[in-house]
Every structure is written in structure tokens, then in C-alpha cells.
């Protein structure tokens, strides 16, 4: 097996591990939302969703772009001392940044944050602010491990242990009567514990190389454009929640946030490939292996699309049933919102890891401009559409913004490097699959109701048909055969 096959084999192996963690993490996060949604009113659920959006945005700002910048810089280092120095600098600067962010938010909360709620900020929401430094430390620790190409920090600790611990604490606090406070307290305690665990293991790896960090100008200059890009990217997904909270009663935020995590689940498979993707592409770029970058990019995009499409079809066909089964019948009115959001998120799977490829190739400023424009477009559309169409307008704004940023990112890669996300066979798969499956499914299943077992059976059958059509249209390339054989060899060795 050649070097490129080994790279892709490592990427697929990592993706499999991260996917398991991400799937469990997404599942537990959805369970967390179900527990909260079924124990509070839609209005309170809306307030909690706004609180989570605030700490998500504040954490991204506090990371100063280091979440993407550190893995890229670390992956290019061979000296353990340099890795330790860069990691220490990144940790120190984001810790100072996160503490400053908490102080600013706490001081300005009566003037700014209160406008996002129906009246005064609930006390249980204010506890979220103290969670920010610990979430930031957790994320930066996982980013350091990403640069070292160590997968289990994310797959096990962040994607499984962290949400499971949160759910356990939420249930415990609800049982003791602290229903409204359960979410913020559980996030605080869980993030604190995970941050300590992650840094304890990292320190043990570099205990002989840790020293007072020097100022790493190159690391900061590369990462800073990414903080605005990351903030714009997270606001692209969270500005809907904040603006719905501004324009409409909190109950509407609750309806919207019931649909959002389900649609967001469509990018789990795409995210699974991302953990090692950035450092791997960055390393190939350092060796001027552009053709290999395109091969990896196209292969990842093809199989992410194939693996995601059945889930997308299931959500489109059974949106109302899914919301009713998961959150209760009072949330079923968000079915149109769920369909629109699913379309938006599915464009990410169809375009592949385009923005991460741009960053790995050394153009963080391009990702910054794209995310800023998409964020601005989303805000403008939300301001126009939410007062007219309510939460359906918010969903449409997000979908259009996702479509723009993916189209623009793909065009940049093509114009700059002649890199396209899909091969000719991949294009056939992307066109024919939806045309063959979705219209038939609508005609067959929209005429009668279906339960959760029926939905599960449909999804399994859809996966089988999707794989069969994909093989007929695109076949399995020699490269994919080599990778499958290599993975089978690794599995047999472990057994």
C-alpha cells in the first residue's frame, strides 16, 4: 500500500472512532434535550437554549482561533519541545481570554443579555457564564491532541464522557427538585472535570518540556483571523436562536431548538472525518502534494454523502413524526422548520470539508471572509424574514446561508487549485440518489402514519438501497478496495 493509501486508511480509521464517539455524543445530547424539553415548558426550554447559544458563542470568541490554529501548527513540528511551547502558549492565552470574556459578560448582562429573554435574565441562566473558561480549556486540550493526531481525546472524553456526565447530573438535579438550574450546573461541573482530566494526561506527556511559554507571534497571527471566522461560523448556526429570542416569545425558541439538533445530526459523519483531516491535509500541503489532497477530499465527500443521505431522506419524509416521538406532540408544529434546516445542513455533506481544506492550505483569511459574509447574510435575512414568517423564516435564512458558504468555498478551491469536491461518478450519485428515493418515498409513506419502528425500518432499507445504487453508479475504485483491505487487516489483527 502506498503512502496516500496509508494516509486515507488512517483517516478512515480515525473517522470510524470519532464517528462512534460523535454518534454517541449526538445521541446523548439529543437525550439531554429530550429530558429538558419534557420537564420544562417550551418557554423555559427556549430560555435554556438561548443560554447555551450565549456560552457557545462566548467560548468560540475566547478560543481566539486556536481551536483550528494549534492543530495546524503542531502537526508541522517535529521537536517535542516546540510542540510543548506552542501548546503552552495557546493554553495560556485562551485562559486569559476566557476569564476576560466572563468578566465582560457578567458586567454588561443587565444592558445586553437581558434583551434576549422575556424580561430579566433568569438566575439559572447566569450560571452558564462561569462555564465558559472550563469549556474553553476542554476544547483547547482536545485541539492539542488533534495536532498530535490522537483521536481518543475527542472520541472518548469529549464526545462520550462529557455528555454522559452532563445527562447524569441533569437527571440527578431534576430528581432533587432543581429542574431549571440542572442544565447550567451540570455543564459547569462536567466541563470542569473534563478539563482537569484532559490537561492532566497532556501534562504527563510533556512534563519534561513544560516551561513558561514565549510569545508565539506566528501562531497568533495565523489563528486570529480564525477567531472572527469561527465566531461568524457559530453565529451562522446560533444567530437564529438569538434573533428568535429577540423578536418572538421564548416558546418559539423552544420549538425551533427542538428541530435544530435533529437536523444538526446530519453533519455527524462529516465531522467524524474532520478530526485528522486538517492536520493530514496540512502535512500534504507542506510537501506540495495537491493531487493527493484532491483524491482524499473527493473520497471523503463521496462517502460522507452516501452515509448521510438516508438520514436526510428519513428526516424529510417523517419530520412531523420524528418531532412528536422525540419531544412530544406540542413540538410537531416545527416540522417545516426541521425540513428546511435539514436541507441546509445537508449541503455541508454534499460539499465536503471545503472550509477546512482552505484553512489547511494556508488561507484562513479566505475562510474568515466567507464566514463573515455568510453570517451577515444570515443576520440580514433573519431580520427581514423572522417578523414576517416567524421561525420558518429563521430556518430559511440558515439554509440559504449554508448554501452560499459551501458554494463560495467550493468555487475558491476550484479557482485556486483546480480542486473539486466530487468526481464524475460522485456527481451522478448526488443527482440520481435523491431523484430516485425521495419522490417515491413521499408518494408511498405520506398517505398513512408510521411509528418509530417503521421509521427505523425505512432508514435501514434506505441505507441498503443507497449503497446499492452508489455501487452501481460509481463502483468501488482500486484505491477504495486497497483501503477496505487495509482496514480489514487491522481489524483481523486486533481480533
From TrEMBL:
The chain crosses the membrane at residues 12-36, 48-66, 86-107, 127-148, 160-179, 185-206, 218-238, 258-278, 299-319, 331-351, 372-392, 427-446, 452-476. The keyword ATP-binding does not apply. Keywords: Cell membrane, Membrane, Transmembrane, Transmembrane helix. InterPro entries: Poly_Biosynth_Transport. One of its GO terms (cellular component) is plasma membrane. It is a multi-pass membrane protein. It comes from the Archaea. The keyword Calcium does not apply. It is found in: Cell membrane. PANTHER family: POLYSACCHARIDE BIOSYNTHESIS PROTEIN, PST FAMILY PREDICTED COLANIC ACID TRANSPORTER. This is Membrane protein involved in the export of O-antigen and teichoic acid.
Amino acid at each position: 500500500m502506498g503512502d496516500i493509501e496509508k494516509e486515507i486508511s488512517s483517516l478512515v480509521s480515525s473517522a470510524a472512532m470519532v464517528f462512534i464517539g460523535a454518534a454517541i455524543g449526538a445521541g446523548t445530547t439529543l437525550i439531554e434535550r429530550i429530558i429538558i424539553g419534557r420537564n420544562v415548558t417550551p418557554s423555559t426550554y427556549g430560555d435554556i437554549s438561548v443560554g447555551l447559544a450565549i456560552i457557545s458563542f462566548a467560548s468560540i470568541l475566547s478560543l481566539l482561533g486556536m481551536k483550528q490554529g494549534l492543530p495546524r501548527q503542531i502537526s508541522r513540528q517535529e521537536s517535542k519541545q516546540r510542540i510543548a511551547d506552542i501548546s503552552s502558549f495557546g493554553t495560556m492565552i485562551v485562559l486569559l481570554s476566557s476569564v476576560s470574556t466572563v468578566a465582560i459578560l457578567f458586567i454588561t448582562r443587565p444592558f445586553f443579555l437581558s434583551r434576549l429573554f422575556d424580561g430579566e435574565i433568569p438566575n439559572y441562566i447566569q450560571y452558564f457564564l462561569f462555564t465558559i473558561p472550563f469549556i474553553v480549556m476542554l476544547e483547547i486540550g482536545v485541539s492539542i491532541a488533534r495536532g498530535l493526531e490522537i483521536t481518543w481525546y475527542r472520541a472518548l472524553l469529549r464526545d462520550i464522557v462529557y455528555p454522559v456526565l452532563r445527562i447524569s447530573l441533569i437527571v440527578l438535579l431534576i430528581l432533587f427538585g432543581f429542574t431549571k438550574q440542572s442544565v447550567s450546573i451540570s455543564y459547569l461541573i462536567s466541563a470542569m472535570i473534563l478539563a482537569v482530566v484532559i490537561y492532566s494526561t497532556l501534562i504527563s506527556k510533556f512534563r519534561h518540556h513544560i516551561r513558561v511559554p514565549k510569545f508565539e507571534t506566528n501562531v497568533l497571527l495565523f489563528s486570529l483571523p480564525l477567531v472572527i471566522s469561527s465566531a461568524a461560523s457559530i453565529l451562522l448556526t446560533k444567530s437564529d436562536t438569538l434573533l428568535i429570542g429577540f423578536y418572538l416569545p421564548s416558546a418559539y425558541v423552544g420549538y425551533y431548538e427542538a428541530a435544530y439538533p435533529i437536523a444538526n445530526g446530519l453533519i455527524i459523519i462529516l465531522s467524524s472525518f474532520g478530526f485528522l483531516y486538517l492536520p493530514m491535509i496540512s502535512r500534504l500541503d507542506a510537501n506540495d502534494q495537491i493531487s493527493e489532497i484532491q483524491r482524499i477530499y473527493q473520497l471523503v465527500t463521496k462517502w460522507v454523502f452516501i452515509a448521510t443521505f438516508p438520514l436526510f431522506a428519513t428526516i424529510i419524509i417523517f419530520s412531523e413524526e420524528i418531532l412528536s416521538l422525540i419531544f412530544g406532540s406540542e413540538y410537531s408544529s416545527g416540522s417545516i422548520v426541521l425540513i428546511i434546516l435539514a436541507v441546509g445542513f445537508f449541503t455541508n455533506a454534499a460539499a465536503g470539508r471545503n472550509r477546512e481544506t482552505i484553512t489547511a492550505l494556508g488561507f484562513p483569511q479566505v475562510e474568515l471572509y466567507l464566514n463573515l459574509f455568510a453570517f451577515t447574510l444570515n443576520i440580514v435575512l433573519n431580520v427581514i424574514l423572522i417578523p414576517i414568517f416567524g421561525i420558518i423564516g429563521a430556518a430559511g435564512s440558515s439554509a440559504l446561508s449554508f448554501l452560499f458558504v459551501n458554494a463560495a468555498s467550493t468555487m475558491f478551491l476550484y479557482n485556486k487549485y483546480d480542486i473539486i469536491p466530487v468526481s464524475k461518478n460522485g456527481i451522478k450519485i448526488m443527482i440520481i440518489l435523491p431523484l430516485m428515493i425521495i419522490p417515491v418515498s413521499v408518494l408511498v409513506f405520506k398517505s398513512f402514519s408510521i411509528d418509530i419502528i417503521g421509521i427505523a425500518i425505512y432508514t435501514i432499507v434506505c441505507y441498503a438501497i443507497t449503497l446499492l445504487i452508489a455501487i452501481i453508479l460509481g463502483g468501488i475504485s482500486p484505491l477504495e478496495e486497497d483501503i477496505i483491505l487495509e482496514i480489514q487487516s487491522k481489524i483481523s489483527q486486533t481480533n
